[in-house]
Specification:
The chain is mostly helical. It has one domain. Helix content is about 80%, strand content about 0%. Helix 1 runs antiparallel to helix 3 (about 45-60), helix 1 (about 5-30) runs parallel beside helix 4 and helix 3 packs antiparallel against helix 4 (about 65-95). The longest helix is centred in the first third of the chain and has 27 residues, at about 5-30. It starts with a helix and ends with a helix.
């Protein structure tokens, strides 16, 4: 693999780590009843998913043998960020009318 490609993968890996940590911290700070209100898994389940994803992003390399685990961790935290987080914000904000 060319050196430029390795640098790009290294940058992507270290940009993904703060995203995983942010997802876990955000999941930690939400009310437990908000998760059931949006008809998703429980708070403890999402804490486990985001924590596992963040750990996978930290421990495994995006270019090495642990690529499968790294991708799984990235997908886990991105599902939380893209799907669960906006719904949690919406349900906790309530009706603004």
């Amino acid at each position: 693999m060319p050196a430029e490609a390795l640098w790009i993968l290294w940058i992507i890996k270290w940009l993904a780590v703060p995203v995983g940590v942010y997802a876990f911290i955000h999941a930690l700070m939400q009310r437990p009843d908000a998760y059931t209100a949006i008809d998703r898994m429980t708070k403890s389940a999402w804490l486990g998913i985001t924590a596992g994803g963040a750990v996978a992003l930290i421990l495994f390399d995006a270019a090495g043998i642990g690529l499968m685990f790294w991708i799984a961790g990235l997908v886990a935290v991105l599902v939380y960020i893209v799907d669960v987080r906006p719904r949690l914000i919406e349900v906790q904000r309530g009706n603004r009318w």
